[in-house]
Structure formats: structure tokens, C-alpha cells
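re: ur question from earlier - yeah i can do the single chain one, its not a big deal. heres the input i used so u can compare w yours
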Amino acid sequence: MGKLVRDRIPELFGGTAHVLDAAGYRAALHDKLQEEFAEYLASGEVLELADVLEIVNALAAPDGISATELEAMRSQKAQERGAFRDRLWWTPT
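and the output i got, formated as C-alpha cells:
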């Protein structure tokens, strides 16, 4: 059974690879995001978040959004609504 891997994995470890079509690629990215996020939750290692970030950027790319543009969107939203620095748990009334 195969899975989506980073570009150099076949070169480094062998095996066979083929290029996915757009729909297959997006579906594989969704699966990979769940996989990598679960690895982060299980391990708590920040390095796993780098994998999550790589996938998030790959998900934005087909929509023409670069990592820089995505970061600008994140920053704008943080300015408008705040971030998560204050560790607030909210209960609406």
C-alpha cells in the first residue's frame, strides 16, 4: 500500500512512484495531514509541526497561495481577531 511522500523519498529509499492527478493529490494531502497531525499529537514533538506546515502549504499552493501569502492571511486574521497567545477558553452566553 502506498502513501504520499516527500519528493526525495523514492530517490533516498527506493521503491516506485507515480504522479497523482489534482484530485488524487488533494485527497492524499488530506490523508497525510491527518497522519502527520496524529503523529504530532502522539509525540508532542515540534519537529512534527514542520511536517504539518509543509502539508498546509502544499494544500494552499493549487489555489495559487504561497507560504508567504498564507502567513500574511494568518497575520491579518490574528490582528483582527487575536491569536491564541492568551490561552483563553471561552464559554458563550
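The mean pLDDT is 96. not sure if urs matches, ping me
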